[in-house]
Design goal:
- The complex is a heterodimer.
- Chain A contains six helices and one strand, in the order αααααβα.
- Chain A is mostly helical.
- In chain B, strands 2-3 form a two-stranded antiparallel ribbon.
- Chain B is rod-shaped and about 135 Å long.
- The chains are: A mainly alpha, B mainly alpha.
- The interface between A and B is large, with 77 and 67 residues.
- Chain A: Keywords: Nucleus, Transcription, Transcription regulation.
Chain lengths: 132, 268
């Protein structure tokens, strides 16, 4: 699964070229303001968890703003993917609901929804053979 | 990277916390349940994302000639990774944000008092006082619990001399007990027994004649018969000392020095 992150690195860079221009328009004063706001902000991914992973790549994370910025980015990344997966499952459910109406099912995140959502981000996920 | 993260996945508390927070994010979005496989995929991706963000922002900071990462490095790294940064403040200020308490630090285990054994040694004068003190004496002072083997020259020589003397005394006593003795004092014959002296007509002869050991060694090399003859010839000279050598030669209990006897019988 982790190898997926390495495979998609070129994909990230293609994205960056699109977004560079949008950043140049909006970055500057709002960004520094936002970074200042991060001083007292608690992201969903705890600081200690992010700090642990950053330490493992050799980044000394004494500044909580850096931790929170990266936490927020990771959160955003995951949220976007999960949102896409949700849309996929809704679309699938709307296609099926004509056949089986009135079935109120719990929303469950499944791999069959997650895989197309991830492939939009350039990540090809295959089910590991021995995953329990 | 992949192998390392997979190994620690089951036991790593940080990974478990990351899984919890990702589950919280999923609940926010509107899911009620999730496959374990899907959540684990997301956890792995979040991990890789944080990893990559940290790595590239670190690299950017080093590129700028700094060792400490600044927020601008992180922003640049995230943008390089394809993040739309304008959406981040909106994401940060969403209404249904859930924050769960970060895992508390485990309280440090109270150190039990160390049993004090003995008095610690003071520093020698050449060691400054601020250096750590010596540990307990029983941990570093060596006390051998076996006797050192005596290997000094003087001791060895003394021991060898005393052994030699003991052997001589024992042998003398043995001969005195088995053979004839003469006593120094007439009233008490058992006080200081002396080995009886055997007078011989030619006392220098035993020194002139070759010793019995050399003879027998030579004879064993040659034939049995000739050895016999030589010893017998020796005996026929009518010397007391050499007569004793024959007796000694018969008493040899080393089988390799014994004369061969079987040969003559089978030969006939």
């Amino acid at each position: 699964m982790a190898s997926g992150a390495e495979e998609n690195k070129p994909e990230f860079y293609t994205y960056s070229q699109e977004n560079q221009q949008s950043l140049e328009k909006s970055a500057g004063v709002p960004l520094s303001d936002f970074v200042l706001q991060l001083e007292d902000y608690a992201p969903t991914i705890p600081d200690s968890v992010t700090g642990y992973y950053l330490n493992r790549v050799g980044l000394d994370s004494s500044d909580p703003r850096i931790l929170r910025l990266i936490s927020l980015a990771a959160q955003k990344f995951i949220s976007d993917i999960a949102n896409d997966a949700l849309q996929h499952s809704r679309m699938r459910a709307s296609g099926q609901s004509s056949k089986k109406p009135g079935k109120d099912k719990k929303m469950t995140l499944q791999m069959e929804d997650l895989s197309p959502a991830l492939s939009e981000y350039g990540i090809n996920v295959k089910k590991p053979i021995y995953f329990v | 990277m992949a192998a390392e993260t997979n190994v620690v996945s089951t036991s790593n508390p940080f990974r478990r916390a990351l899984k919890t927070s990702i589950s919280a994010l999923l609940v926010e979005i509107g899911y009620q349940a999730a496959e374990n496989l899907a959540v684990e995929t997301l956890v792995e991706m979040a991990q890789a994302y944080i990893w990559e963000a940290g790595r590239s922002s670190h690299a950017l900071a080093e590129l700028a000639g700094r060792t400490h990462v600044m927020p601008s490095d992180v922003v640049l790294a995230l943008v390089e990774m394809g993040l739309d940064f304008t959406a981040i403040p909106k994401h940060a200020k969403r209404e249904n944000k859930t924050v769960f308490l970060p895992p508390a630090q485990t309280p440090p285990v109270a150190q039990s008092k160390i049993l004090q054994v003995g008095d610690k040694r003071k520093h020698p004068s050449h060691i400054p006082e601020h250096l750590p003190p010596f540990p307990d004496p029983h941990t570093h002072i060596k006390t051998p619990c076996f006797k050192q083997p005596a290997n000094e020259y003087q001791l060895v020589r003394e021991k060898a001399a005393s052994q030699k003397r003991d052997v001589e005394v024992a042998l003398t006593r043995f001969i005195a007990k088995t053979g004839t003795t003469q006593s120094l004092f007439k009233d008490d014959p058992s006080a200081f027994p002396l080995i009886a002296c055997k007078p011989s007509p030619l006392p220098y002869l035993s020194a002139l004649l070759p010793s019995d050991y050399e003879l027998s060694a030579q004879d064993n090399c040659e034939a049995d018969m000739s050895g016999r003859h030589a010893v017998l010839d020796h005996d026929s000279m009518g010397d007391d000392g050499s007569g004793q050598t024959l007796g000694d030669g018969d008493m040899i209990d080393n089988p390799y020095l014994l004369p061969v006897r079987v040969a003559r019988k089978s030969w006939r």
